[in-house]
Design goal:
single chain, 126 residues, globular
Length: 126
């Protein structure tokens, strides 16, 4: 059974940090690009970052560049999103997703991904 499970979300004050994890099961992670998306209250889901099979990272939001870092540990079947200097605007449910086909490039379109996690809530507030 294909599955992605996010963890690591929580409540943090502005300027704080969190590291999200996306644990994969039911497939071999190293063959797939993995993306992180987020959905803030009342807004559409948006792509945050993606990591390719060779470890190349793409950031899709100017607002997170320099603050968020995506990485992967294929041995642990896990992708991470390190988030520093968090701001209230980063409050959202964060999702990870698997690209549809092996070795496909990262993409911003949601329909390029075929497996999604349940999401983890990140709340940034003083």
């Amino acid at each position: 059974q294909l599955q992605l499970v996010e963890s690591g979300g929580g409540f943090v004050q502005p300027g704080g940090s969190l590291r999200l994890s996306c644990a994969a099961s039911g497939f071999t992670l190293r063959y797939y690009a993995i993306g992180w998306f987020r959905q803030a209250p009342g807004k559409e889901r948006e792509g945050v970052s993606c990591i390719s099979t060779n470890g190349g990272a793409e950031d899709y939001l100017d607002s997170v560049k320099g603050r968020f870092t995506i990485s992967r540990d294929n041995a642990k079947n896990t992708v991470y999103l390190r988030m520093n200097s968090l701001a209230p605007e980063d409050t959202a449910v964060y999702y990870c997703a698997r690209i549809q086909f092996r070795y496909n490039r990262c993409a911003t379109r949601e329909n390029a991904y075929d497996t999604w996690g349940q999401g983890t809530q990140v709340t940034v507030s003083s």
